[in-house]
Write a structure and sequence with these properties.
alpha+beta, ph1033 like fold, 6-stranded mixed sheet, THYN1-like_EVE, PUA-like_sf
């Protein structure tokens, strides 16, 4: 099993929305490294830290899980979608997405300042300068610390 951090802006798609919907396809990712994580590395059962970015304050809201492996992102073919890619074809898709399912909200939201203040998390990717990827691998030790802090 692997562990991940996936960022979403709460006004676009929040953990509350995932709880309501139960699952969602993680569409709209248009970064090759993040896409490759979904295509090549994410497996059913992998655990996800659901991170609210562009929030006040940003931070980890809870846990999700990968429920289906990567498939072509349908939005790349939809001319009305902001994620349409004219270079993508059904025969040669460019963008992929995994399905994510809701697991739990943390009892304690863990803000970015709290993450930064915890010396045991200092080498976590989300805390590194210039690390802006919307999908990042997380070490098990960091996942365990955060689930404990979050009260999961």
């Amino acid at each position: 099993m692997k562990y991940w951090l996936m960022k979403s802006e709460p006004d676009v798609f929040s953990l509350d929305q995932l709880k309501k919907d139960k699952t969602t396809w993680w569409t709209g990712v248009r970064n090759y490294q993040a896409r490759n994580f979904m295509m090549k590395d994410m497996q059913v059962g992998d655990e996800v830290l659901f991170y609210h970015s562009n929030a006040t304050p940003p931070g980890v809201a809870g846990i999700a899980r990968i429920s289906k492996v990567a498939e072509p992102d349908k939005e790349q073919f939809d001319k009305k979608s902001e994620y349409f890619d004219p270079k993508a074809t059904k025969e040669k898709p460019i963008w992929f997405c995994v399905q994510v399912e809701y697991v739990a909200h943390f009892k304690n939201y863990i803000s970015l300042p709290e993450l930064r203040d915890n010396a045991k998390l200092a080498d976590m990717l989300v805390l590194q300068k210039g690390s802006r990827l919307s999908i990042q691998p997380v070490e098990k030790k960091h996942f365990d610390i955060l689930t404990k802090l979050g009260g999961a």
